[in-house]
Amino acid sequence: MSSHITAHDLSFVPFISEAEIAERVAAIGQQLRQQYEGKRPVFICLLNGAFVFAADLVRATGIECEVAFVRLASYEGTASTGRISTVLGIDFEVKNRHIIIVEDIVDSGRTLHHFMGQLSQMETASVALAVLLFKPEALLMPVQIDYLGFEIPNKFVVGYGLDYDGLCRNLPSIYQLATI
Ligand code: IMP
Ligand code: MG
After folding, report:
1. What residue ranges define each of the domains in the chain, with the CATH number in brackets?
2. Are 115 and 103 in contact (CB under 8 A)?
3. Among residues 9, 48, 128, 171, which one has the fewest Cβ atoms lying within 10 Å of its Cβ?
4. CA end-to-end span of the chain, whole Å?
5. pLDDT-based confidence at residue 89 (cuts at 50, 70, 90)
6. Which of helix, strand or coil describes residue 52?
7. Does the beta carbon of 48 lie inside 6 Å of ligand 1?
8. Which ligand 1 atom sits closest to the C-alpha of 111?
9. Model confidence band, residue 80 (pLDDT cutoffs 50, 70, 90)
10. Whether residue 41 has its Cβ less than 6 Å from ligand 1
11. Strand intervals (E) in the chain
């Protein structure tokens, strides 16, 4: 694996490799296939961070499905602001549909708690949550994750869709903030 990288003023070290990510994504894809084959679920990719994970995950399932996008915002720099705003909302029919929310990371849990609350008021057939990374030590609001890639320590990470002030989303693997 390549060594450390820098973005803006910060330094990051390799944390989860492309191969490790691919293995977990394939495994979750198979689980989803078993659960949702024939149900034509709607994957809701939470922008921006989940776009890489969602692209790989929907292809790993190999099932008939739809893909939609929602954008909520709660983050600035390396710390959650606690304010959630809807930038791009649900503009498609979710009634009687099986929904799978795809998110890059659960940190405080505020974003998903807020969004699950919105969805629970709609008459969906079911709602499940697929998350690539989970920081249990940072959790403030309850969130039930149905499909999880990795549980990680409470440290800022970038790559594979995750950014630091706009940078690093296109890195194929995941990096962790270097401790000085
Ligand atoms: P939460 O609402 O605090 O759970 O924050 C979730 C959102 O914050 C995620 O969708 C990410 O976009 C962003 N986020 C949380 N932790 C990190 C991180 O370590 N690196 C990059 N973005 C993060
Ligand atoms: Mg996100």
Report:
1. 17-151 (3.40.50.2020)
2. no
3. 9
4. 21
5. confident
6. helix
7. no
8. 2
9. low
10. no
11. 5-7, 10-16, 42-47, 66-76, 79-88, 98-106, 126-134, 147-151, 157-158, 174-177
| Residue 5 CA, distance from chain mean position | 22
pTM over 0.70: yes
Ligand 1 atom nearest the C-alpha of 48 is 12
Q: What is the pLDDT of residue 101?
A: 98
Assess whether the C-beta atom of 43 lies below 6 angstroms from ligand 1: no
- Nearest in space to 49 (alpha carbons), one of 28, 65, 70, 32: 70
- To test the pocket of ligand 1, the residue of 78, 105, 152, 164 to mutate (highest count of ligand atoms within 8 Å of its CB) is 105
Closest atom of ligand 1 to CA, residue 104: 10
pLDDT tens by residue, 125-145? 999 999 999 999 999 999 999
Tens digit of pLDDT for each residue in 60-73? Answer: 999 999 999 999 88
Q: How far is the CA of 158 from the centre of ligand 2 (A)?
A: 11
Share of the chain above pLDDT 90, in %: 83
CA proximity to 147, closest of 22, 31, 26, 49: 31
